[in-house]
Design a protein that fits this description.
Order of helices and strands: EEHEEEEHEHEHEHH
Number of strands: 9
Number of domains: 2
Radius of gyration: 21 Å
Number of helices: 6
Bound molecules: zinc ion
Distance between the termini: 23 Å
Largest sheet: 5 strands, mixed
Structural class: alpha/beta
Strand content: 15-25%
Amino acid sequence: MKSIKNESPAQCPNHCEPFDVEYWSLVRADQDPDLKTAIMGGELNLVQCPECGTFFHHDGDLIYFDQPSELLVFVFSEKDRQREPELLARMQHDYELIKNTLLKQLNMDYPPLSVFGLEALKKVLESEETVGYESEVIAASAAEKGLSVARLKPSYARAHHFPYYVPAPAHPQTANDYAVAAAKVLHGGLNSLLLRNFLDKMSEDGAELPKTL
Ligand SMILES: [Zn+2]
């Protein structure tokens, strides 16, 4: 599944005559990092009205997909916000379809996210970036303590507000072994809410082993 451009009429916010634009309707971020950069910079699907010269974002539906990050986001048009229940039902249907056809070989086992508008997508990506940086610091701190590092399954980590990397015990038998390893790094002076949350959840009674890659 590759990035796709669509064509549709765009409506200038100054109520000029509609005009046809080409816009990205599917962004395969892991294959086209430039498109991800454009989203972060607010340039994706930015068009200019030929009549009055105003720049604006074409508000078309978009699917954002980053396979290694296990991130699939359906971006709906801002103006459709009041149709959310209907759109979520359609998303579920489209997701099943994509999962079983275009992306069948990937064995997707994580649910899609949904947002309204490119600005909201940008926020999701910024938050991903922040978690990514914090995870790298955790991995470096774990290595400093002589611990190995485990990579959590990204969609699992995201759903639980865990970091993407955690300190790993040498021979993990239980979730609590992970809690002990996390405590070693946190007691070493690292300030990380994500790792703290991971520690708390791993030390709960009956906690299951984390999903690692
Ligand atoms: Zn205009």
